[in-house]
């Protein structure tokens, strides 16, 4: 093997490692957003219960 072949393989492995790291970080971000969505829905329910609104739209 030439040094250029080894360099090409090393670059390919480095790129794959970088892409795998990005994929893992995006999966963590997706889990965080799902948790935030659930907490926001719970807060919305608490506010609706506090104000006494039950799916009522204002009359125009």
Total number of helices: 1
**Sheet/helix structural class:** mainly alpha
The number of distinct β-strands equals 0
Rough outline: rod-shaped
Q: Average pLDDT value?
A: 87
Uncertain segments are: none
* Quaternary structure state of the chains depicted: single chain
Structural write-up:
This protein is mainly alpha-helical and 60 residues long. It contains one helix and no strands. The N and C termini lie far apart (79 Å). The mean pLDDT is 87.
Give a quick rundown of the structure.
By secondary structure, this protein is mostly helical. 82% of the residues lie in helices and 0% in strands. The chain has one helix and no strands.
Break the fold down into its secondary structure elements and pairings.
Blueprint: H1 3-51
Give descriptors for this structure.
single chain; 60 residues; mainly alpha
């Amino acid at each position: 093997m030439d040094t250029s072949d080894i360099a090409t393989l090393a670059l390919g492995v480095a790129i794959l490692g970088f892409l795998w790291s990005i994929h893992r970080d995006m999966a963590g971000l997706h889990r965080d957003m799902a948790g935030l969505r659930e907490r926001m829905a719970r807060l919305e329910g608490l506010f609706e219960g506090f104000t006494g609104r039950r799916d009522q739209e204002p009359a125009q």
